[in-house]
Amino acid sequence: MREQWIEAPKIEGNQELAQRLRVSPLTVRMIRNRAGMSEEAVRDYLYGEIGSLADPLLMKGMSEAVRLLREKRDNGASVRIIGDYDIDGVNATHILLTGLRRIGIKADTVIPDRMRDGYGINENLIREAAEAGIDTIVTCDNGIAAAGEIAFAKDLGMTVLVTDHHEIPYREEADGGRTPVLPPADVIVNPKQADCDYPFKCLCGAAVAWRLVQALYRAEGISEEEALNLAEFAAVATVGDIMELTGENRILVRYGLKRLEQTGNFGYRGLIAVNGLEGKKLTAYHIGFVIGPCINASGRLDTAKRALNLLGAETPGQAEELAGDLKALNDSRKALTVKGTEEAVRQIEETTLKADRVLVVYLPDCHESLAGIIAGRIRERYYRPCFILTNGEDGVKGSGRSIQGYHMFDEMTKVRELFTRYGGHPMAAGLSMEPDKVDELRRRLNENCTLTEEDLLPKKSYDAVLPIQYAGEQLIEELELLEPFGKGNEKPLLAAGNLLVKSARIIGKNANVLKLVLEDGKGTRMEAISFGDVEGDLEYIESKDRISVLYYPEMNEYMGRRTVQLVITAYR
């Protein structure tokens, strides 16, 4: 696939700042690309500590939430936490359950079933709580859009505390203005409220829950260290929910990863062990692609209660058994995802779908919880907006993943009459519809599409041009200062051109690694590897005299020998 490579803007003044911070000008340039221009922003990025997070009481509703929960404790009221079935909701639920019980609240929890209940709080869950004698419901990672459901709980005489991080719903007015539509809860804690003074707005649901527990513990005189014991759960959720790793999120994740390596939680110790990560430096990659998917697989293919039980495991043996179950579920999820992706590719390649600018692929036998993952894989492969549709219990369900320049929610709104339910934002969406509307959806989305050939050309940004002779161990050590990497804080990419390929071969037990030896015009030779379409890349490389690459350097340790190795992400 052709790509457009774009170099990040060059910035003046890096030399002087680099001298003051005792790092290289290249490192300063890369930090400024991510954190901002000012020296204060660069220092915060490099040296921000967990103690520098804003006071949780700045969050609108936080003081009221603390007061309400302490009153409920003093009155002996029963509290039920209603979370969500993904990694954010599971960790948020564990944090709240631990925190509320620690201060003496009679608390239990219910996590909705993805297939039976759908997302978030609903009337059935509220009715069950009322029948069980529950006085107060606390939501986490949901509730801000549940005005009707929470009104139902209030009609039953219940107290409701909403903790959430999602966008505030609004009503479009005739003059084009937007009026927030908040649920009639007794207290709402969500940093995205318009008049909330909390300075960082991009916390995940578990981080909001953690800040609430932190405020509760302070009010109760419980040590800050006990609150920090729960930070690792908020950190895992931040990465797993694909929040931007900037500002407070980056500080929280950096801190939480260090805690997780030495975690006292039997559940996460079990997941680390079963995935072969004991004794290793944990990165955001391990959360996003190894540990996190095991937590999510529980809510996708079974019930999220398994994941919650894992985090609450009281013995290593119990945790080991549950961790093994979740890994097996995730292995099954991966196999089903590969199967679904292969079928989607087959349909696109063998039918008229390949000519569409918006891909609508119907996989009736695919598990509905995998539609979003498969849509993301297809979007990456073809660089086009993609909807994957499956058969659900009540008609067709689907998930979409988009590209820059295609506002998925707005485009769906133009054909809203085709859906029984839909929702989303510019880059992702979900939907329900009748089966006989699938072909019309494909036709109308493509008729309405204004994407140009230029829009459909993938764009890959890189930080700087750096000849491979300068990609040494000192640079690699400095790049570690930029970790953790993830959304909003991508791994640095460098460009090098005019390279000779001295050797290239496919290796690995699954034949999925391309190993090369590259040489620049000054006699520097460097080993390199790449992944992906290794056969296609090898064929491409062998047809060229010289190549350019996008890469990042890393240390390769093999049989006691440490060498610099380039990991290549693109060729041309």
CATH class placement of the largest domain: Alpha Beta
**SS content category:** alpha/beta
Give the strand order, joined by hyphens, for the main sheet. Answer: 3-2-4-5-8
What best-fitting shape do the alpha-carbon axes yield?
globular
Multimerization state? single chain
Task: State the low-pLDDT regions, or none.
Answer: none
Helix content: 40-55%
Compute the average pLDDT.
92
Structure explained in plain terms:
- The chain has 572 residues and is α/β, with parallel strands linked by helices.
- It folds into 3 domains: 4-47 and 459-571, OB fold (Dihydrolipoamide Acetyltransferase, E2P) (Beta Barrel), CATH 2.40.50.460; 56-223, inorganic pyrophosphatase (n-terminal core) (Alpha-Beta Complex), CATH 3.90.1640; 351-448, Diaminopimelate Epimerase, Chain A, domain 1 (Roll), CATH 3.10.310.
- Helix content is 41%, strand content 21%.
- The protein has 20 helices and 20 strands.
- The protein has helices spanning 14-21, 25-35, 39-47, 62-74, 87-102, 123-131, 147-155, 205-220, 224-228, 231-240, 247-261, 266-274, 284-301, 305-311, 316-350, 371-382, 408-413, 438-448, 473-479, 534-542, and strands at residues 4-7, 78-82, 106-110, 136-140, 159-163, 170-172, 178-180, 187-189, 359-362, 386-392, 395-401, 419-425, 428-433, 459-462, 464-465, 494-507, 513-519, 525-530, 547-558, 561-571.
- A 5-stranded parallel β-sheet has the order 3-2-4-5-8, with helices on both faces. It has a 5-stranded mixed β-sheet with strand order 9-10-11-13-12, sandwiched between helices.
- Strand 4, helix 7 and strand 5 form a beta-alpha-beta unit.
- The chain is globular and about 75 Å long.
- It starts with a strand and ends with a strand.
- The relative contact order is 0.09.
- The mean pLDDT is 92.
